[in-house]
Amino acid sequence: MTSSSAFETGPGGEPDAEPRLLCDTGALADAPPQAAGVLWKLAETGRQLDANVVRLAPGDRVDSHREPDLDVLVLVVRGDGVLGKGAADAPEPLAEGALCWLPHGSARSITAGGHGLTYLTVHRRRPGLRIRSHAAAAPVQT
């Protein structure tokens, strides 16, 4: 299930942003088992956020890493697991309904429990890559 449509363009060329229902995360989580991975992603044009619904199979994990630039919210939709918070802190159990804030710069990992884990992530959208000419990228000498 994906989001319904891209923003329509209004009279001034700006996105005509209207609230809309994007998906039913419970229905995604309850769908017959399939390969783990992204079940849904926010794909609206003109958005300022990125969001994904991710499924991990029982025992699967997102290895420990640091996100230097973005805070991330994680909402557990179905299943259970463990949030690893770095070597100095004890892991945090995750259950359905748990809402976690992962501040930028923090070490984190996620491991699915025996029933697997389906969760929603939300964070600020990263700017796209821009291709510039070599002359535009070079500093100006005065």
Low-confidence spans: 1-7
Helix content: under 10%
Number of helices: 2
- Rg on CA atoms, Å: 19 Å
* Computed structural class: mainly beta
Q: Would you report the number of β strands?
A: 9
Q: Please write the CATH class name of the domain at 41-125.
A: Mainly Beta
Mean pLDDT value: 81
List the secondary-structure elements in sequence, H or E. EEHEEEEEEEH
At the fourth level of CATH, the homologous superfamily of the domain at 41-125 is Jelly Rolls
Quick one: biggest sheet? 7 strands, antiparallel
Examine the coordinates and then state which fold CATH places here, giving the name of the CATH topology of the domain at 41-125. Jelly Rolls
Could you give the distance between the termini?
54 Å
- Tell me, what's the shape? globular
What is the CATH architecture annotation of the domain at 41-125? Sandwich
Sheet-strand content, in percent, reads 35-45%
Topology, please?
Blueprint: E1 8-9, E2 15-16, H1 25-30, E3 37-41, E4 49-56, E5 61-66, E6 72-84, E7 92-95, E8 99-102, E9 107-124, H2 134-137
Antiparallel strand pairs: 1-2, 3-4, 4-9, 5-9, 6-7, 6-8, 6-9
Structure description:
The protein has helices at residues 25-30, 134-137, and strands at residues 8-9, 15-16, 37-41, 49-56, 61-66, 72-84, 92-95, 99-102, 107-124. With 142 residues, the chain is mainly beta. Strands 3, 4, 5, 6, 7, 8 and 9 form a seven-stranded antiparallel β-sheet that branches. A two-stranded antiparallel sheet has the order 1-2. 14% of the residues are buried.
